[in-house]
Structures are given as C-alpha cells and as structure tokens.
Amino acid sequence: MTKTPRSAKSTSKSRGTSTKNAAAGKRGGKAAAGSASAGRAPRSTSKAPKGGVKSRGPATPATTSASTASSAELNQARELALGALEAALEKKALMPVLIDVSAMASYTDFIGIVSGRSDRQVEAIADGVSQFMKLQGRRVIGHEGTGNGRWTLLDFGEIVIHVFYHPVREFYDLESLWIDAPRVKIAIPPDAILTQPDALYGAL
C-alpha cells in the first residue's frame, strides 16, 4: 500500500478547511445581507416605554438617508398632521408640537407630540387622533406604548403621533432630541398651554 506523503495530506486538509470556511463565510454574508435588507430605521433609540407593548420607546433622530417625498406629498402630510393635532386638541390635549423631520429621518416625515393630564385622557386623545385619521382613510400601521396610559405612539407612516402623560413627556424630552428639526407653526388655544405643571406631577 502506497502511503500518502504528509505534505500532501496537510495540503488536502487545509484546502478542505478553506472550502468550509469559504462556504461558512458565504452563508454568513447572506445572513448579514438579509438582516440588513430587512432592517428598518428604528423609531426610537432611547426607548423606554416606544415600550410596554414592545419595549422600544419614543422615536429619536435617525442617521439614515432623508425622506424622498415630493413637495406636494409633504404638504399633504403636513396638513394631515395638523388635522391630527387639531383632533387631539378637541380632546383637551396640552402643548401640541409638530416637528418636520422629512430632511432628517427615513421612517417618517412629521412627528407630533401632545400631552394629557391623566392616564385616561392620554387614551382618549389617542382614540380621537385614530378616529380622525380613520375618517381621512388612514389607519394606524403601528401602535406602541406603555400600556398603562402614560404614553402612546400612533404610526401612520409619514406621520407619527406621540401622546404622553405630561410628566412622562418631560422625562423623555423628544423635543430636545429633535432640536435641529424645524417646528411647524400651530395655533395653540390658551387652555392648551400648560402654565401650572406641578399639579400634573406624580410617580412615573
């Protein structure tokens, strides 16, 4: 019986290992590519409650490419967002803010933020916004929150509305996270301006 030289065995073995490693690398590359293609810019990074339902938390600035919506589409989305905040004000929401993030985020164009005076009011405001958008032919495509009336997120695609119990809103301070994004002017009625916040504060 002819013996195979050790050098030939080691060469064959190393080739086999290289082939296995290459195959594994290829599989790993496909998995990574699949994961990247399936991934979506997170609606939040400092999420703490965008929460209770999926502990993800309020949306923060994304580092992905800016939205490519046309000017007409942006104007339409802006008017719709303003209508949603008006619906929130009809439910006695406080301190409405509308932030234009169309040039800074890929997952939405406008972020609306309002406050409620109690857990129950937060839920009523969220319901009012959802009903308004439903009448406009728009259904919520994502609904997150703490599940106890402290914070609710309503995702309508190009519009995202956050409804907070006010002390929770101040704790997460989304306005500061989007400090460089322009604010859309809103006519705020006097009764929606919070001048005595102390009465709202409780245990978070």
Q: Mind sketching the topology for me?
A:
Elements: H1 6-38, H2 71-90, E1 94-100, E2 110-116, H3 119-135, E3 142-145, E4 151-155, E5 159-165, H4 166-172, H5 174-177
Parallel strand pairs: 2-5
Antiparallel strand pairs: 1-2, 3-4, 4-5
Helix pairs in contact: 2-3
Features:
204 residues; Beta Polymerase, domain 2; 5-stranded mixed sheet; 5 strands; disordered N terminus
Folded structure, characterized:
- The chain is an alpha+beta fold and 204 residues long.
- It folds into 2 domains: 39 residues; 124 residues, Beta Polymerase, domain 2.
- Helix content is 40%, strand content 15%.
- It has 5 helices and 5 strands; from the N terminus they run H-H-E-E-H-E-E-E-H-H.
- Strands 1-2-5-4-3 form a 5-stranded mixed beta sheet.
- Helix 2 crosses helix 3.
- The N terminus is likely disordered.
TL;DR?
The chain is α+β, with helices and mostly antiparallel strands.
Number of helices: 5
Write down the overall geometry.
globular
Q: Helix coverage percent of residues?
A: 25-40%
Strand percentage lies at: 5-15%
Distance linking N and C termini: 81 Å
Q: How big is the Rg?
A: 25 Å
CATH topology of the largest domain: Beta Polymerase, domain 2
Query: What's the name of the CATH homologous superfamily of the largest domain?
Result: Beta Polymerase, domain 2
Poorly predicted runs are 1-56, 63-67
Largest sheet, if any?
5 strands, mixed
Estimated structural class: alpha+beta
Q: How are the strands ordered across the major sheet?
A: 1-2-5-4-3
| CATH architectural label of the largest domain | 2-Layer Sandwich
Question: Mind telling me the CATH class of the largest domain?
Answer: Alpha Beta
